[in-house]
Design goal:
509 residues; alpha/beta; TIM Barrel; Oligo-1,6-glucosidase, domain 2; Immunoglobulin-like; 3 domains; eight-stranded parallel sheet; 20 strands; binds alpha-D-glucopyranose; GH; GH13_cat_dom; alpha-amylase activity; Alpha-glucosidase
C-alpha cells in the first residue's frame, strides 16, 4: 500500500498575518496567501499549514479565537478561504488549519456569557479568596488565574484574555467535534492542534511541585491521560472523511516516549518533534534526537522553526563572532532534516534564510509575553516580521502599496527578498528549491530507516540506501564517505572535503 500523503510531506507554515497582504492594510491576509500559492508550489512543498485566521481580538496573534467558524475581517472572508483552498488543491498543495482547543478568546460568546454568570462550567472557574486557587503560573508569565469583580477566579494558562476550557464538560467536546466537521466539510486536509497536551487539568487542580512546570506526565497541568480520549474521538471523525485527513499535534513533552503516546494508531497522525528544534549545533545532540525519534517507531517529523521560536539562523549563530555561521548552520541543519525519513515542517522565511529581527522597538512589539514580562523577555515578534517579497524598500512587496507593515522590516532585508534570491543560484531560496526537488525525486525509493556510517566525532554520516547525508558540526574539515555523486550541499564542497558547518547529500552505490 502506498504511504499516506502526510508521511513524507514537506509542510510550510504560513503565519497569515505576516505572509502576504493583498488588501493593503499592512497585515497579511488569505487573498495574499492565495496570490502567493504558485511561489509555494514552485518551492516544492506538499502542504501548507495556516496559523489561526479566525475571528479574534488578536491579543495572541489569533491564538485567542472568538469564533471558530469564521474568518476575521482582518484576514478576509470565508469566501476568500474557500477560493484559497480551491487554488491550493489545484496546485497540488494540501491545506492544514490550526485548531485551538485549550482556550478561547475572552471575547468568545461562551466566555462573554460566563462573565454574566451563565455557563461558567464551560471554563475553569473557582471560588477563592484574595489569593488564586493554586500556584499555577501562566506560560506567558504571572499567575494563571484572574479574578472577576464578583470574586471568582478563572484559569488561563496563557494570557488572561485566553480562558481555558473545561474539557470535563461534554458540551466542549461536542463543540469541537462540530468545529472539526465545519472545516473538513470546507475541504481542509488536516489540523494542527494547538497546545495539544493541555486541555485536561488534574482533578482538584492541585499545586504544581515548586520551582517546576515541566511538561511531564506527572504534571497536574500538561499531558493528562484523559486527553488521549479526545484524540481518539477526533481520529474517528477524520477517518470518516475521504482523502486521508490528518492531525498534527503541538505536543511539548520531556521525552520521546511521552510523545509517542499521542501517536498511537487510533490517535494523532503526527506531532512536532521539538527535540530537533531544541538541539544545539552538535553532532552528538543531533544523533541522540535522531535515534530517540527513530526508535519510537511512530511517524517521524522534523522541525527547526515556527512562529514561536527564534529563527534558526540567529539561534545557531548566537554568541559567535562570524556573522555568517548562523546561516551556514541553518542551511546545513535544514538539509540534514530533509534527508531524514518522515515529514518536515518549514516556517515561512526559512527558505529565505531570514534572521530573527532582534531590534524591534518596544512600542511595536505585540506579543503578550513582552508586556507580561515587563519587557524582560522580548517575545516572539522577531520571527513574525512580514516577509520580504520584492523591491528595495519597505514593505518589500509584502503589501501592494507603500503602507507600513504591522511590524517594521529591517533595511538589510533588501538583499533577502524572494525576488532577489530567485535570480541568484547561490541563494538560500535556490538551495531550498533544489533540495526539495531532489527529495521529491528520491523519496519514493528511499527506505524509512537510516543506517549510521562511521564518521569523525564531530560529524554525522547516515545513509538511506542510495542517499547518504553528511553533516559537519565540528571546526575541522572532514573527508566525505565514498559516493558516486555529490547531489547538493549547503555550502560549496570541493575535492571530497566537507567544510565545517556544512551538510551534503551524496548518491551512494
Ligand atoms: C501555541 C502557539 C502559540 C500560542 C500558544 C497559545 O504554543 O503556537 O503561538 O501563543 O499556543 O495558544
Amino acid at each position: 500500500m502506498e504511504a499516506p500523503w502526510w508521511r513524507e510531506a514537506v509542510v510550510y507554515e504560513i503565519y497569515v498575518r505576516s505572509f502576504a497582504d493583498a488588501s493593503g492594510d499592512g497585515v497579511g491576509d488569505l487573498a495574499g496567501v492565495r496570490q502567493r500559492l504558485p511561489y509555494l508550489a514552485e518551492l516544492g512543498v506538499d502542504a501548507i499549514w495556516l496559523a489561526p485566521f479566525y475571528r479574534s481580538p488578536m491579543t495572541d496573534g489569533g491564538y485567542d479565537v472568538a469564533d471558530y467558524r469564521d474568518v476575521d475581517p482582518l484576514f478576509g472572508t470565508l469566501a476568500d478561504f474557500d477560493a484559497m483552498v480551491a487554488d491550493a488543491h489545484e496546485l497540488g498543495l494540501r491545506v492544514i488549519v490550526d485548531i485551538v482547543p485549550n482556550h478561547s478568546s475572552a471575547e468568545h460568546p461562551w466566555f462573554q456569557a460566563a462573565l454574566r454568570g451563565e455557563g461558567r462550567e464551560r471554563y475553569l472557574f473557582r471560588e477563592g479568596g484574595t489569593r488564586p486557587p493554586n500556584n499555577w503560573q501562566s506560560v506567558f508569565g504571572g499567575p494563571a488565574w484572574t479574578r472577576l469583580p464578583d470574586g471568582q477566579w478563572y484559569l488561563h494558562l496563557f494570557d488572561p484574555s485566553q480562558p481555558d476550557f473545561n474539557w470535563r464538560n461534554p458540551e466542549v467536546h461536542a463543540e469541537f467535534l462540530d468545529v472539526l466537521r465545519f472545516w473538513l466539510d470546507r475541504g481542509v486536509d488536516g489540523f494542527r492542534i494547538d497546545v495539544a497536551m493541555g486541555l485536561y487539568k488534574a482533578e482538584g487542580l492541585p499545586d504544581t511541585p515548586p520551582g517546576k512546570q515541566a511538561f511531564k506526565a506527572e504534571s497536574p497541568i500538561w499531558g493528562r491521560p484523559e486527553v488521549h480520549e479526545v484524540y481518539r474521538q477526533w481520529r474517528k471523525v477524520l477517518d470518516s472523511y475521504p482523502g486521508e485527513r490528518m492531525a498534527v499535534g503541538e505536543v511539548w513533552t520531556d521525552s520521546a516516549e511521552d510523545l509517542a503516546l499521542y501517536l498511537r494508531p487510533d490517535e494523532l497522525h503526527q506531532s512536532f518533534n521539538f527535540a530537533w528544534l531544541e538541539a544545539p549545533w552538535s553532532a552528538t545532540a543531533f544523533r541522540t534526537v535522531i535515534d530517540d525519534t527513530m526508535v519510537t517507531g511512530t511517524a517521524p517529523t522534523w522541525v527547526l522553526s515556527n512562529h514561536d521560536v527564534v529563527r534558526p539562523v540567529t539561534r545557531y549563530g548566537e554568541g559567535l563572532v562570524n556573522s555568517t555561521t548562523g546561516l551556514a548552520r541553518a542551511r546545513a541543519a535544514l538539509l540534514t532534516m530533509l534527508a531524514l525519513p518522515g515529514s518536515a515542517y518549514l516556517y515561512q522565511g526559512e527558505e529565505l534564510g531570514l534572521p530573527e529581527v532582534k531590534d524591534l522597538p518596544p512600542e511595536v512589539r505585540q506579543d503578550p509575553v513582552f508586556a507580561r514580562s515587563g519587557g524582560k523577555i522580548p517575545g516572539r515578534d522577531g520571527c513574525r516580521v512580514p516577509l520580504p517579497w520584492s523591491g528595495i524598500a519597505e514593505p518589500y512587496g509584502f503589501s501592494p502599496e507603500a503602507v507600513d507593515p504591522w511590524l517594521p522590516q529591517p533595511p538589510e532585508w533588501a538583499a533577502l527578498t524572494a525576488e532577489r534570491q530567485s535570480s541568484d543560484p547561490g541563494s538560500t531560496l535556490a538551495f531550498c528549491r533544489q533540495a526539495l526537488r531532489i527529495r521529491r525525486e528520491l523519496r519514493a525509493s528511499l527506505p524509512d530507516r537510516i543506517t549510521w556510517l562511521d564518521s569523525p566525532e564531530d560529524a554525522l554520516f547516515f545513509t538511506r540506501d542510495s542517499l547518504t547525508c553528511a553533516v559537519n558540526c565540528g571546526t575541522d574539515p572532514v573527508r566525505l564517505p565514498p559516493h558516486e555523486e555529490l547531489l547538493i550541499s549547503s555550502a560549496p564542497v570541493n575535492d571530497g572535503i566537507l567544510p565545517p558547518d556544512t551538510a551534503a547529500w551524496l548518491r551512494t552505490p
